[in-house]
């Protein structure tokens, strides 16, 4: 016979439930959600006005209630009044300052004083960065010495002769104007110097590019704290109308050109080579008997080899130089452009930028009507040829262009191969 007393049924907790510690108590409520589930809320009176903090489970709600009642009993009113989001922000802020051994109250107070001077967080950060850059430890080195070091490194890395000459020319002018330590050069000073050059937009842009290279080099090697060129005005250069010469104009230019520059002028006008390609070209690349010019990878802008035909007119202008060897242009990069200007001045004409190449492309396309073939000779794409040169001149004008030859027939050497179309 079983004499054990029957067990009393477990009583379900009544709601709302209270969590009490000393005189303080916190109520926890259960509510039915619209979806049919349960939600739990903790009543928070820490700031004198009731606020409900929601929790997804009963366990989380009770833990929050116990934590809250403990804070209230210890008079931690501010902590008790924090929402979960505020508590998370507090913890994250304290953690961010921990590596610097700065308390949250000290960090907040310092930032508040900074904002009192500069009422904008972005400006405060910019001011700190500026201070750090200006007080960074650098090795003081004159601009000229840094320029020499940069060019020496580029030379050791086998940069092209033309590129090195361009760097030397532009940076040499800059070094002559800035006889000071590299770390002392400011954005305003560089901007004023560029403005004083009164150059075309493209030329100014080219100067800015090489100066940016110089100061990136200086920063990387500890000769400057920052790159002042970053703040210098960056110009946008838009391509203008394609300018060309008339047959009569090219005749005048060729007649006025100095003997050492005349082959360069003729090659640009009747073969369409770029100025940079002409400066790299050797007489050995000009195959007069075979009637073509070989543009190797080292000479071409696109680093792609191509063959450019020699027309009758070009053969006639180059005939007196058939026995020459070495570079076609033996002068410097700067002297090349001086020779252009001298020829145009002597001819009484305005020098048109890239007009020799544009003229060749326009007259050549009008002669053969094959954009793909012209593009191959120019070293660019058929779409560019179509866009810039199609129907720019008439076939009759093209015939006149390629008929421009030296006045003396004695200068022409007989060639057995047929002329190009």
Number of helices: 18
CATH superfamily of the largest domain: Intergrase catalytic core
Number of domains: 4
CATH topology of the largest domain: hpI Integrase, Chain A
User: Which structural category fits the helices and strands?
Assistant: alpha+beta
Largest sheet: 4 strands, antiparallel
What strand line-up does the widest sheet have? 1-2-3-4
Helix-residue proportion: 40-55%
Overview of the structural elements:
This protein has 421 residues and is an alpha+beta fold. It has 4 domains: 26-82; 94-134, no CATH class; 143-231, Orthogonal Bundle (DNA polymerase, domain 1), CATH 1.10.150.130; 247-411, Intergrase catalytic core (hpI Integrase, Chain A, Orthogonal Bundle). Helices cover 50% and strands 9% of the residues. The protein has helices at 58-73, 77-81, 84-97, 104-117, 121-134, 143-156, 161-177, 187-197, 201-220, 247-256, 262-271, 275-280, 312-318, 333-347, 355-368, 371-378, 382-389, 395-401; strands at residues 17-21, 24-32, 38-44, 51-55, 286-287, 292-295, 306-309. The strands form 2 sheets. It has a 4-stranded antiparallel beta sheet, with helices on one face. It has a 3-stranded antiparallel beta sheet with strand order 5-6-7. Strand 1 and strand 2 (24-32) form a beta hairpin. Helix 10 (247-256) packs across helix 14 and helix 11 packs antiparallel against helix 13 (312-318). The protein is elongated and about 130 Å long.
């Amino acid at each position: 016979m079983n004499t054990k007393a029957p067990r009393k049924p477990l009583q379900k907790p009544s709601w709302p439930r209270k969590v009490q510690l000393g005189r303080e108590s916190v109520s926890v409520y259960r509510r039915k959600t619209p979806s049919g589930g349960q939600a739990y809320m903790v009543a928070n009176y820490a700031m004198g006005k009731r606020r409900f903090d929601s929790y997804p489970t009963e366990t989380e709600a009770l833990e929050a209630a116990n934590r809250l009642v403990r804070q209230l009993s210890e008079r931690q009113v501010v902590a008790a009044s924090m929402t979960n989001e505020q508590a998370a922000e507090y913890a994250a802020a304290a953690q961010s300052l921990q590596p610097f051994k700065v308390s949250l109250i000290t960090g907040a107070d310092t930032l508040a004083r900074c904002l009192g001077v500069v009422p904008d967080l972005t400006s405060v950060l910019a001011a700190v960065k500026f201070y750090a850059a200006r007080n960074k430890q650098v090795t003081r080195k004159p601009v000229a010495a840094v320029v020499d070091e940069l060019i020496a490194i580029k030379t050791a890395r086998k940069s092209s002769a033309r590129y090195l000459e361009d760097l030397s020319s532009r940076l040499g002018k800059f070094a002559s104007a800035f006889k000071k330590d590299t770390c002392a050069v400011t954005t305003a000073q560089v901007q004023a110097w560029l403005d004083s050059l009164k150059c075309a937009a493209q030329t100014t842009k080219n100067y800015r590019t090489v100066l940016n290279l110089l100061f990136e080099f200086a920063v990387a090697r500890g000769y400057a704290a920052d790159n002042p060129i970053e703040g210098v005005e960056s110009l946008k250069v838009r391509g203008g109308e394609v300018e060309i010469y008339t047959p009569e104009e090219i005749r005048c230019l060729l007649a006025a050109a100095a003997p050492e520059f005349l082959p360069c002028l003729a090659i640009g006008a009747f073969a369409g080579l770029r100025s940079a390609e002409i400066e790299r070209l050797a007489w050995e690349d000009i195959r007069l008997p075979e009637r073509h010019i070989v543009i190797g990878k080292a000479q071409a802008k696109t680093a792609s080899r191509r063959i450019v035909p020699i027309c009758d007119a070009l053969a006639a202008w180059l005939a007196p130089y058939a026995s020459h060897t070495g570079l076609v242009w033996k002068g410097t990069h700067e002297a090349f452009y001086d020779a252009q200007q001298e020829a145009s001045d002597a001819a009484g004409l305005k020098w048109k930028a890239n007009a020799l190449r544009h003229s060749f492309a326009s007259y050549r396309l009008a002669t053969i009507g094959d954009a793909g073939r012209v593009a191959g000779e120019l070293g660019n794409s058929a779409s560019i040829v179509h866009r810039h040169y199609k129907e720019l001149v008439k076939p009759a004008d093209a015939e006149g262009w390629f008929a421009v030859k030296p006045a003396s027939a004695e200068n022409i050497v007989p060639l057995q191969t047929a002329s190009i179309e």
